User: Which sequence fits this backbone?
């Protein structure tokens, strides 16, 4: 476990990590893409409640953080597909732990 002494370097790395995945949607989008590459509409259907505008913004942010890749194929109309990068896949353990923690939390707090 990390030292909790408030080391500025430790806090900076945690801040950087949170900045890359902060918000309500980014981890859900990454989880959706962890299975296979998907098109915009497929992600939108899987991540319930996200608006197209927000999804577009979050995808651009994830791409700028090198967590996902956007591929445009020369078709008519153009096909755009999003996939998780190896750097994004490095969050797999974090997503798994959040999943298991969420199950335990739901059981403890909600009772389901």
Assistant:
């Amino acid at each position: 476990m990390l030292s909790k002494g408030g080391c500025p370097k430790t806090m900076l790395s945690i801040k950087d990590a949170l900045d890359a995945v902060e918000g309500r949607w980014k981890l859900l989008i990454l989880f959706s893409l962890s299975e296979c590459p998907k098109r915009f509409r497929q992600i939108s259907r899987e991540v319930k409640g996200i608006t197209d505008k927000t999804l577009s913004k979050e995808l651009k942010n994830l791409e700028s953080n090198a967590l996902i890749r956007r591929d445009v194929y020369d078709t008519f109309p153009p096909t755009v597909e999003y996939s998780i990068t190896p750097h994004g896949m490095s969050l797999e353990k974090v997503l798994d732990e959040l999943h298991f923690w969420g199950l335990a939390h739901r059981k403890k707090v909600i009772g389901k």
In short: The helical segments are 8-21, 26-33, 40-46, 52-64, 86-89, 92-110. The chain has a mean pLDDT of 92. Residues 11 and 17 are 10 Å apart (CA to CA).
